[in-house]
């Protein structure tokens, strides 16, 4: 699917870099249109987003190893950013940061944002993302 990524500006990239120093503020889409996610990568991206959304501080990631909400957020952003960089998916990164992985949207869809209890209800955001990336 072609995607217009004009919302991920140099300013947004700088803000992302200030929050996470591993994000390269100069890695922004050079044009306003591009492929969001190739067909062969979509399932992997969706699985990663779903996994990130369901991680929680009260659920160990391995035997007796628990992460804080901030550690989950940091590792999730880092994993997704690294995936996008390694696969040269700058438009996908722009879309994911603007709509999912920036702090305000992360707080809406990630269970880790509620550290004291595990939310039972799930938002429709994951279903929406599936439709956008699959289209």
What does this protein look like?
By secondary structure, the protein is mainly alpha-helical. The chain has one domain (2-134). Helices cover 54% and strands 4% of the residues. The protein has helices at residues 10-19, 39-54, 69-86, 90-101, 103-109, 125-134, and strands at residues 2-4, 33-35. A two-stranded antiparallel ribbon has the order 1-2. Helix 4 (90-101) packs across helix 5 (103-109). The protein starts with a strand and ends with a helix. Mean pLDDT is 84; it is low at 123-127. It comes from Paraglomus occultum. This is 10343_t:CDS:1.
Topology diagram in text:
Layout: E1 2-4, H1 10-19, E2 33-35, H2 39-54, H3 69-86, H4 90-101, H5 103-109, H6 125-134
Antiparallel strand pairs: 1-2
Helix pairs in contact: 2-3, 2-6, 3-4, 4-5
